[in-house]
């Protein structure tokens, strides 16, 4: 890293209430690269990371907290889910409508709905922007059959027995569970309604959804009736395994995705709206697209809707552990670089917060991904150098002047992350070689 970059970061850290330094970020990266956070993690390091994220969040927001100790709602969510409800008056340039969020009202909805989503990853607000929530989650199960197949190891033999009209114990349980599942779906829609969500950005690849059996797919449409008030925007994005090419050649502009074998299954859909016209999506490639270009265009689309809509949005992929944090992080850092959220945090603190909260505490398995060469997290932060231009700033669209330090902020975060990521991963690999 250039010496100038280090000097600038030191200057940025001067002042009051500086909670994090580069040593803290290095220790965090070492923890994240060696350990996946899970529900039973109450070790001192994980608790300290959680406490630091809470302090950083509460610097700018009045927050409520959803107690998820030992994963009682979701085993791969933070032990303390932080929900911002109001921007603090002492750091806010302008006052926006307060949210009506009340964790005591939210908990009963989650209790009755969280089992209908994969890995129990229910919609949860993670960003507050102008009184609107940006939420994250996993996808819902298509029906009880797919849920049983994934969680309990039942496969086509069970489905065949039931749909040949042979009443068995399994099929009787299926009928009862289906009634319960339908109730959970209804409550899941209530969760999104409570968070004032209008847009659902679905990052799943359509071909990956087709891997399920016809029986599983057959009833998926039945449950869509409960989500008709929400606008689904299909933004299919390459699976995490595709980022192995980035590990082999970490030149971000050289990472392509081949759509040739998926041409018939690929769909890009943006719903029409009377008050929002999406920006022109310029994809220069048909068979092979640059993943960077795809990421930039999707981010522009998300920022456009978030800026101009009066309601919030939900971002999800299949399990919400890889592709979802990629876009949540880019959204958070882009809005922060515009001076619109987390206004009191400096680049070092934002590096810590995004790595810790958006990735580690929300279940991203960096040790497994790094060992497999699936460098999606590194790709995410590498994008910062390309979204630092004013093209990605939404200040003008909401009537504000252009940001003065957007480029500096994002480049500083990228340089710090790049230095520490390579350093920690290299150290782990050297230890493994020495051990063999």
Please, could you describe this protein's structure?
The protein is globular and about 60 Å long. The strands form 3 sheets. Strands 3-4-9-5-6 form a 5-stranded mixed beta sheet, with helices on both faces. The protein has a two-stranded antiparallel ribbon with strand order 1-2. Mean pLDDT is 83; it is low at 1-15, 154-158, 209-220 and 262-268. The protein has helices at 3-13, 22-34, 44-58, 103-111, 144-151, 156-163, 169-194, 206-209, 214-218, 220-224, 244-248, 291-308, 323-337, 347-360, 366-372, 376-382, 406-435; strands at residues 61-67, 80-87, 124-129, 132-137, 197-202, 231-234, 256-258, 288-290, 312-316. By secondary structure, the protein is an alpha/beta fold. The protein contains 17 helices and 9 strands.
